[in-house]
């Protein structure tokens, strides 16, 4: 097979695998969205229990395992790296078709910025890496610069997870002690609205996934180098060393962990935002890994460093443009303006997916709807005498029929509310009707009037 034919096959496989990977990620995101739209009383289903998520995960693994293997063996690095940016275009198309996200001017601008930035990063960040023996790899791993870089990466990941955990606790748990004694500078680090927290969690999980993916690739390259040296030199002594299996085991742990965080990010952020971000973080971390691990810090020219920085900025601008026109389904509710400290100060205990709006202390929860606490009976005739009131109350006690106050006609609008009219001297809260209640109201309104 000639070299041009090999490159052609690798390029076609690369394009198909990029499209397959984008479809797989989008199906996983669609599965998370459909799960959030289920009734609140429905039991939660883990992702692996959903057929749509399983199909998406299968396509994602197929594209990464089979597609990447063929590309690595058939394409040179100078073609392989820019070809990865093709997946960003497929990702935007899949988000517009499968997720039904609007393809606006912001979408076009964001896609162009992300694609061009990814080409700059992949093109100018491509570095040839030599093969090493186990002894050489262990020496590279133990070098102080690489140890410092890995320590900084681990510290960054732990700080991100700690911040997310603290904000989650503040959003879901009420403390008995007041938080007023906490300094303002510290409060601002955790005082974040639920809407922004959901988006921030998805972005941070994507950053973690990109970093771990690059580190797992470094370990995978090291394991492949050891295997190739063993096959070529017929020397299998490296695989009798426990450190070799530690490298292989660490690769599998990081690979599975980065998939977990990628799936977590997909449950909060659209693929049109998450995929470009993960791509950018993955490439930047991969470049730093190559420079630090293989001691090639001086190999990049000033032009390459400038183009990599420019590409990173373009990708981040593109991600910002893509996220600008997105709105999550639950962001439309008014609870997006409440923060963790507001919840504590108001004395409310709410879940992450529940509304953070509640009545003030001076407000009363007086409303009439299906499932309301206690109906308020009232005499049918406004001018009835005391004896007739007593008679009606005795009849009401014996009969299941209870007369209610006339609070107006029932509405089947999606955001309809029912309750007593506003009182100038007494504030009353309204209750939002659920989907089932609106359906029941619509059926009642369609019933014929009885004489």
UniProtKB/TrEMBL annotation:
InterPro entries given for it? EmrE-like (IPR037185), Mg_trans_NIPA (IPR008521)
Kindly give the membrane topology term recorded for this protein: Multi-pass membrane protein
Q: Where is this region: Disordered?
A: 367-433
* Listed Low complexity bias regions: 384-399
Q: Where is the composition biased (Basic residues)?
A: 422-431
Keywords on record = Membrane, Transmembrane, Transmembrane helix
Domain of life of the native organism:
Eukaryota
Mind telling me which Pfam families this protein's record contains? Mg_trans_NIPA (PF05653)
Stretches that traverse the bilayer: 6-27, 52-72, 78-99, 108-127, 147-170, 203-224, 244-262, 274-293, 299-320
GO MF terms listed in the record are: magnesium ion transmembrane transporter activity
GO annotations of cellular component type: membrane
Q: Does the keyword Membrane apply?
A: yes
Q: Does the keyword Membrane apply?
A: yes
Q: Where in the cell is it found?
A: Membrane
Name of the molecule in the record = CYFA0S07e00892g1_1
What lineage is this protein's organism placed in? Eukaryota, Fungi, Dikarya, Ascomycota, Saccharomycotina
């Amino acid at each position: 097979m000639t070299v041009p034919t090999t490159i052609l096959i690798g390029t076609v496989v690369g394009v198909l695998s990029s499209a397959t990977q984008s479809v797989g990620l989008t199906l996983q995101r669609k599965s998370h969205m459909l799960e959030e739209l289920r009734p609140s009383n429905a039991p939660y289903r883990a992702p692996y229990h959903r057929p749509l998520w399983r199909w998406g995960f299968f396509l994602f693994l197929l594209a990464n395992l089979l597609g990447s293997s063929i590309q690595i063996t058939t394409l040179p690095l100078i073609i392989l790296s820019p070809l990865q940016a093709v997946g960003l275009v497929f990702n935007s198309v899949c988000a517009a078709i499968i997720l039904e996200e609007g393809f606006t001017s912001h979408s076009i601008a964001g896609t162009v910025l992300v694609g061009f930035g990814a080409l700059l990063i992949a093109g100018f960040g491509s570095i040839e890496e030599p093969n090493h023996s186990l002894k050489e790899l262990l020496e590279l791993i133990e070098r102080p610069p690489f140890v410092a870089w890995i320590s900084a990466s681990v510290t960054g990941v732990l700080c991100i997870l700690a911040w997310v955990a603290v904000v989650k606790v503040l959003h879901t748990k009420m403390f008995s002690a007041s938080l007023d004694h906490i300094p303002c500078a510290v409060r601002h680090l955790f005082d974040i609205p639920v809407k922004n927290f959901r988006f921030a969690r998805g972005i941070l999980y994507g950053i973690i996934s990109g970093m771990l993916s690059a580190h797992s690739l470094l370990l995978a390259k090291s394991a492949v180098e050891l295997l190739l040296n063993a096959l070529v030199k017929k020397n299998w002594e490296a695989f009798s060393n426990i450190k070799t299996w530690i490298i292989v085991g660490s690769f599998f742990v990081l690979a599975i962990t980065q998939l977990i965080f990628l799936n977590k990010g997909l449950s909060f952020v659209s693929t049109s935002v998450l995929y470009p971000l993960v791509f950018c973080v993955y490439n930047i971390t991969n470049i730093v890994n190559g420079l630090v691990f293989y001691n090639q810090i001086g190999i990049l020219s000033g032009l390459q460093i400038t183009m990599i920085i420019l590409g990173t900025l373009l990708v981040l601008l593109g991600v910002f443009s893509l996220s600008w026109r997105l709105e999550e389904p639950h962001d439309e509710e008014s609870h997006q303006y409440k923060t963790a400290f507001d919840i504590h100060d108001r004395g409310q205990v709410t879940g992450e997916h529940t509304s953070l709006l509640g009545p003030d202390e001076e407000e009363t929860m007086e409303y009439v709807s299906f499932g309301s606490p206690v109906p308020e009976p009232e005499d049918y005739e406004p001018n009835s005498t005391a004896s007739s009131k007593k008679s009606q109350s005795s009849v009401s006690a014996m009969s299941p029929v209870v007369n209610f106050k006339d609070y107006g006609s029932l509405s089947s609008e999606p955001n309809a509310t029912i309750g007593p009219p506003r009182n100038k001297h007494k504030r009353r809260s309204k209750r939002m009707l659920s989907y089932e209640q609106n359906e029941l109201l619509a059926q009642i309104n369609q019933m014929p009037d009885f004489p």
